[in-house]
Amino acid sequence: MPLQDKLVIALPKGRILDEAMPLVRAAGIEPEPAFDDPKSRLLRFATNHPHIDIIRVRSFDVATFVAFGAAHLGIAGNDVLMEFDYPEIYAPLDLGIGKCRLSVAEPSEDAESDDPSRWSHVRIATKYPEVTRRHFAARGVQAECVKLNGAMELAPSLGLCTRIVDLVSSGATLLANGLKEVEVIAEVTSRLIVNRAALKTRSDEMSGWIDAFRKACQA
Ligand code: PRP
């Protein structure tokens, strides 16, 4: 099959992948051995289905590949979907994996006496500037966002910002860095996402895979 006719599934690198792969496999998709070989530099992998390839990219990029139709299906958290708000993406299925929350945190000593509902202006380091601005604007607070791509937890103690907005799972990273969660912006789980145009033009194939993932989740 010509490469451009293949169905491409975008999966996120990192910790979600460990939770996602049992579902991908239960849906009947098995990547080639290089997928599990940490030494392999491949980014695109064949599967047991000659017409399906898997790509492995950063979690934010899963949404971008799917939005532009470069991948047809993908797995992305609603944190990423909220940040981009791509109209081309449809998220038909909550996979119930990657559970965490998107929260505001600040140095523990400030959090003791602080009341977030009284903030008027905040400077926030985050990977999620759009979600953060919208969240605070909705209650009339102007959030000045400093975009970081990781290790946000360092920023308050070094004076880059007074608060951060980041994913919190166990809370261990916040605790280890002297921060405290003061407000939850959203509960997060991973979703199966599809490109809307592909859902129209390849509807039988795409609906079949959405069903396969639904059954995998229920099993
Ligand atoms: C995420 C997040 C926090 C941490 C929270 O980072 O950005 O730093 O996990 O988890 P915890 O509450 O269980 O400590 P991740 O390790 O996924 O790496 P990233 O910075 O590359 O996103």
Q: In a few lines, what is going on in this structure?
A:
This protein is α/β, with parallel strands linked by helices. Helix content is 31%, strand content 31%. It folds into two domains: 3-98 and 189-218, Periplasmic binding protein-like II (D-Maltodextrin-Binding Protein, domain 2, 3-Layer(aba) Sandwich); 100-187, Periplasmic binding protein-like II (D-Maltodextrin-Binding Protein, domain 2, 3-Layer(aba) Sandwich), CATH 3.40.190.
Bound molecules: 1-O-pyrophosphono-5-O-phosphono-alpha-D-ribofuranose
Largest sheet properties: 6 strands, mixed
Question: What is the overall shape?
Answer: elongated
Query: Residue share in helices?
Result: 25-40%
**CATH fold group of the largest domain:** D-Maltodextrin-Binding Protein, domain 2
Report the top-level CATH class of the largest domain: Alpha Beta
